[in-house]
Structure formats: C-alpha cells, structure tokens
C-alpha cells in the first residue's frame, strides 16, 4: 500500500493515547494520501468497457465521499482551533506536501484488488480514528 510508510497508531488502544491534535493530523494525512490514487483509479476503470455503469458510478461516488470527508474534517479542525481545543499547528497539512508521501506510481501500479484492499484498510483506520476523536471531543456521547 502506498500509505504503508505513514506512521499511524497501530490499534485502538494506541490511537486512544495520542493527543487529539496528532490524531486529527493522521486523519487528514490519510485522506489526502488517497486523493490522487482514487482519481487515477477512476480514470483506470473508465477504460474497462466490460465494467457495468453502476461500478463506474460507485467508484466516482467513493472519490467524492473521500473528498467530502476530508473537507468536513478540515472544517471540524478549524472549529476545534477556534474553540481552543487544538492549536493552529495543523494549518497547511492538507496539501500533498504536508502528507510526507511520494505518491508516484506505486498506487497506480497495484492490482485493482490490492488497491481496494489498501483503501479499505485505510478507510477503516480513518473511521476508527474519527470515532475516537469524537469521543474525546464530545464525551457526553457515552462512548
């Protein structure tokens, strides 16, 4: 996976121990790391004539959802900064330079099944990290 080199908390208990700011940073880095590979994946599958239209539509929908999620996390981050929950040190990390990843062709050269496996793995991480972050910010949700 092209994100394998990223330092991410390994397991729920480790993710719960890192500060909110770092966890937010990891979430944004993972989401940004998938922007370009998902775009290339969409272009790649558009050239498969044997794929049904609903598969193409789903792939585009996934890319749009990742973009919307990243935008939403950025807005929540801004709100957390304005409320003083986290510092402003996260500004600018949403760019590809801020991820510390060289996307190159590694993600583009994966088989479709490997690509989907890696995407699912990272999606599960983001989902877990967001749940942990939500519980830390709003403990009244009885997490």
From TrEMBL:
Q: Does the keyword Secreted apply?
A: yes
For this UniProt record, the keywords arranged alphabetically read as follows: Hormone, Secreted
One matching Pfam family is Hormone_1
**Where is this protein localized, as stated in its record?**
Secreted
Coiled-coil intervals, chain numbering? none
Give the UniProt entry's GO cellular component terms: extracellular space
GO MF, one example: hormone activity
Q: Which BP terms does GO give this entry?
A: positive regulation of receptor signaling pathway via JAK-STAT; response to nutrient levels
Record-stated family: Belongs to the somatotropin/prolactin family.
Q: What is this protein called?
A: PRL protein
Tell me what organism the protein belongs to: Poecile atricapillus (Black-capped chickadee)
């Amino acid at each position: 996976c092209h994100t394998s080199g990223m330092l991410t908390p390994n397991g729920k208990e480790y993710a719960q121990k890192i500060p909110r700011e770092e966890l937010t940073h990891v979430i944004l880095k993972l989401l940004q790391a998938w922007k370009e590979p998902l775009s290339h994946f969409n272009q790649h599958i558009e050239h498969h004539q044997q794929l049904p239209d609903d598969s193409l539509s789903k792939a585009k929908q996934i890319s749009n959802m990742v973009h919307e999620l990243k935008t939403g996390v950025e807005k929540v981050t801004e709100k957390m900064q304005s409320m003083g929950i986290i510092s402003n040190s996260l500004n600018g990390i949403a760019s590809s330079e801020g991820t510390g990843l060289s996307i190159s062709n590694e993600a583009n050269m994966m088989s479709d099944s490997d690509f989907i496996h890696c995407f699912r793995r990272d999606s599960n991480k983001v989902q877990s990290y967001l749940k942990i972050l939500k519980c830390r910010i709003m403990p009244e949700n009885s997490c």
